[in-house]
């Protein structure tokens, strides 16, 4: 079965000195958005990965260091955020307008 992996949970066991983690949440009107599709696009806007937010609106990607675009698509609208990710934990919030 194809589909985005379940989101949420801890980073226990992940070596943040060697991994680049981009994680955060999607919000709309002051509340988290569950079930939103979150896409990770590279510096040329090329699609790299997609996940579905957790019930708490959370998402997580493992990526290479660099500039990434995080784009969210939900029934209530869309939003995006550019992030310059470094090795370690990189957190962001995507606000749907």
TrEMBL record:
InterPro entries reported in the protein's UniProt record: DUF1416 (IPR010814)
Source species, domain of life: Bacteria
Entry protein name: DUF1416 domain-containing protein
């Amino acid at each position: 079965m194809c589909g985005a992996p379940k989101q949420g949970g801890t980073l226990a066991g992940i070596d943040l000195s060697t991994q680049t983690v981009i994680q955060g949440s999607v919000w709309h009107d002051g509340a988290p958005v569950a079930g939103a599709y979150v896409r990770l696009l590279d510096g040329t806007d090329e699609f790299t990965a997609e996940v579905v937010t957790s019930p708490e609106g959370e998402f997580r990607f493992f990526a290479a260091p660099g500039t990434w675009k995080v784009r969210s698509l939900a029934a209530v609208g869309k939003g995006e955020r550019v992030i310059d990710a470094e090795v370690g934990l990189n957190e962001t919030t995507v606000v749907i307008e």
